[in-house]
Amino acid sequence: xxxxxxxxxxxxxxxxxxxxxxxxxxxxxxxxxxxxxxxxxxxxxxxxxxxxxxxxxxxxxxxxxxxxxxxxxxxxxxxxxxxxxxxxxxxxxxxxxxxxxxxxxxxxxxxxxxxxxxxxxxxxxxxxxxxxxxxxxxxxxxxxxxxxxxxxxxxxxxxxxxxxxxxxxxxxxxxxxxxxxxxxxxxxxxxxxxxxxxxxxxxxxxxxxxxxxxxxxxxxxxxxxxxxxxxxxxxxxxxxxxxxxxxxxxxxxxxxxxxxxxx
Length: 263
Known about the structure:
Layout: H1 4-7, E1 16-19, E2 21-27, H2 34-43, H3 51-72, E3 78-79, H4 88-99, E4 104-123, E5 128-147, E6 151-158, E7 165-170, H5 171-181, E8 186-188, E9 192-194, H6 224-228, H7 232-237, E10 242-244, E11 250-253
Parallel strand pairs: 3-4
Antiparallel strand pairs: 1-11, 2-7, 2-10, 4-5, 5-6, 6-7, 8-9
């Protein structure tokens, strides 16, 4: 197949590919839907109407863990009373201008947000009690941190069962760090602006372990997430966290003799 890159190989100095925004969702398969939660509680002789009482200790554990992390890093958890009062990204950008971009925990936000939950319901006709899915509100923590491979990331942690996590990183940040390690000069604005790589003919430099079409995960999972998400709920319940990645947009830059932006 005669691609654009093949047709213009003599004028293209290099090809850089990366994901745009990467979002991964972490769920506990034994807990994440009503039937699974009902089976889980039933196997442990816990009444379905005691579901809130069962979940409360985990809520307190996550809150205590977040407060402990804040103390260890000399941070103050910032509670957001109005979700649209400001852009979290702008606040993080200002903090990074002060602390620098070295790896570590940057900031912790907390806010009351919608979350999936369950409620017990008793069917008088059948005499059976079941759990039904519903939407509730609980305290969420959003941990912003810098990973040495992925750059700026965040992990969103709810304090209520079924404890569905959300992890985010920007593929352009990953590419920028890989360019830095390989000695390719670039200017990072909102997205990396690579200067022309040296060499003849097109050269592909995709994000290692996270390149579009790749299933590798060697650099896709930063260690700080284990620190931000306490192991108590999974460890105590005996459930393992499963991570899934929805379809993502990818970006490709084709540098010529002058700097160009990734779309």
